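Supplementary Text 2. Reproducibility record for the structural model of the 68-residue chain.

All settings were left at their defaults, and a single model was retained for analysis rather than an ensemble. We include the record here because the model underlies the residue-level annotations in Supplementary Table 4.
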Amino acid sequence: MLDYTIEIPSVNPFPIKLKMCDSINCPVCDIDLSEELNIDLDTFEVDENTTIHCKDCDLQLNFKIVKI
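Retained model, structure tokens:
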């Protein structure tokens, strides 16, 4: 399994909602994971422990909040 980390710069404390995003795409195979995994981006929140798994390319997508 591959690991990939997405860093999200923020001044807000986590959890952070991703409603400003149109989709969450896999960085390897470019599949829309929000659609594939039925993630509602209006309500979906990420924190330091959030991971998403892409079944198509066996990638684990990790989120990291970076305070600015």
